[in-house]
Amino acid sequence: MKETWHFLNTKSNDPYYNMAVDEALMNFVSRGEIDPVIRFYTWDPATLSIGYFQKLEKEIDIDKVKEKGFGLVRRATGGRGVLHDKELTYSVIVPESHPNMPKTVTEAYRVISEGLLEGFKALGFDAYFAIPKSKEAREKLKSPRSSVCFDAPSWYELVVEGRKIAGSAQTRQKGVILQHGSILQDIDVNELFDMFIFRNERLKDKMKAAFVDKAVAINDISDRHITLEEMEEAFHKGFQDGLNIQFKELVFTDSQLSEIEEIKEKYKSDEWTYRK
Question: Where is the site labelled Lowers pKa of active site Cys (predicted)?
């Protein structure tokens, strides 16, 4: 008998709403109002999201972000800068006490990412998990070199044709795991790197080359153009197969909707975005 989880696709919304819904879902799961939930969403406008611990003014060229007309938001999860543009973003919210959820971040990442793995397979890709072999490689993962997410494959990295294909971040709060991440449809690497501050051009070029070597969008490796709708369908199936669950649609109550609006104000505030 498959366990039933909630599912919702909130489609395209502004960055503050997107982050508020993820945080609100953690609250709802924490309070036992809803079952574990998987959510899909996209971004309007295209947005640079930065990790909870990033030093915004030191690492990001804020004028450049504004000049390009991108949104800017700080996530509740760690990790580095991600440009959310042509992608499908997913989030998984599940109690830490769930019998299928391992205690460590790494192992839980592996379990949740089975859904991604099956999604890529549903699109016809040869996907697998890569595990760093050497102690040196594992140590290196603990000290990422740049502000740009996707720069270093982490443990159990999801790889397609030898390149990292999905960047994910995880946080645990109020007894709940939140993992969210980007499944890239297309990516403009120059656009992304333009928004980060580097000590010099040489370093920027070096980082960009390393990124291109590791990060890949679905349409970079597909022999045909894969649409967002196809991605939504494949990963909807993938998460059900990978986590051995079935879905029921989640519809927010009025009080849940007003909680989302309340949290949204936090993500809009300079106090949160520019926090030291």
Answer: 164
The pTM of this model reads 0.89
Characterize the bridge pairing of strands 37-43 and 87-95.
Answer: antiparallel
Residue in 37, 60, 88, 149 annotated catalytic = 149
Mean pLDDT, each 10-residue run in order, the chain (276 residues): 97 98 98 98 96 91 95 92 93 97 87 94 91 58 43 60 75 94 90 90 88 81 94 98 98 98 98 90
pLDDT at position 106 is 81
pLDDT, position 135: 58
Helix (H, G, I), strand (E, B) or coil at 179: strand
Structure confidence at residue 67 (pLDDT):
95
CA contacts within 13 A on the Cβ side of 191:
16
Residue 225 DSSP one-character state: P
Does the annotation count 149 as an active-site position?
A: yes
| 103: alpha, beta or left? (left if phi > 0; alpha if psi -120 to 50) | alpha
Alpha helical stretches, state H, 83-179: 105-112, 114-122, 135-141
Residue 155: what pLDDT? 57
How many residues are given for the chain?
276
CATH of the domain spanning 3-125+168-200+225-267: 3.30.930.10
What's the CA gap between 244 and 12, in Å, rounded?
Answer: 27
For residue 15, give the H/E element and its range.
helix 15-30
How far apart CA 241 and CA 213 sit, in angstroms, is 30
